[in-house]
Design a protein that fits this description.
Blueprint (H helix, E strand, L loop, with lengths): L3 H29 L3 H7 L4 H13 L3 H14 L4 H14 L5 H16 L4 H13 L3 H14 L4 H13 L3 H14 L4 H11 L1
Length: 199
């Protein structure tokens, strides 16, 4: 009888743990099915669910909901690089409603460059976002930084090649397009642009 309280504590702890495992399992299933509301209700401590929900809301032009979900994800996991990248993507979606969100998108990516200064993809993403906003000249240093950090970054070399080609800086375009093809020899657009330059 003396061990009865301990037994009850162990039993209750086991039930709680099993319940949590089951909830987490079903939350992951809901997440895999893109049912983010269900995933959040089953496991409200998982930032990935909120982040995914924010992207979906942004794509559906639900501005406040998208920002609220993203804010919750950041509160739970403030220095998670992937969550921050998705936040930047969310703001980019919202920038079609209001240009102020584009600046927030770039600012979020710049936070990532401070948290992960050697992550070439972040600089590439900033370059891509600026290109989408038709800020071509501003995008160049970010693509160049991406290639400095990762010399075999074919997408970044290709982006530079296309920009320099459009600017009629054919010598620079040739260098970048050749580098692209060294890394990704099946890039038919790069081949075509090089052919155009050589004519």
């Amino acid at each position: 009888m003396k061990n009865k309280p301990i037994f009850i504590i162990i039993l209750l702890s086991t039930i709680y743990i099993l319940r949590s495992i089951i909830f987490f399992y079903f939350a992951d299933i809901a997440y895999a099915k893109n049912d983010y509301q269900a995933a959040i209700s089953l496991n409200p401590t998982e930032p990935i669910y909120y982040s995914a929900a924010s992207l979906l809301a942004a794509q559906n032009n639900q501005v406040n909901q998208a920002i609220n979900y993203s804010n919750k994800a950041i509160i739970i996991s403030p220095v998670n690089i992937n969550i921050l990248k998705e936040r930047a993507q969310m703001f980019l979606y919202l920038s079609t409603k209001d240009p102020i969100y584009f600046e927030k998108s770039i600012a979020t990516l710049e936070i990532i460059t401070k948290l992960a200064p050697t992550d070439a993809k972040t600089y590439y993403l900033i370059g891509q976002f600026l290109t989408v906003a038709n800020k071509i000249t501003e995008s160049i240093p970010f693509f160049q930084k991406a290639t400095e950090l990762k010399s075999n970054y074919d997408d970044a070399h290709f982006a530079l090649g296309k920009i320099f080609y459009a600017q009629k800086k054919y010598d620079q375009a040739t260098i970048e397009l050749k580098k692209t093809l060294e890394i990704a020899p099946n890039n038919t657009v790069a081949k075509s642009l090089l052919d155009q330059i050589s004519k």
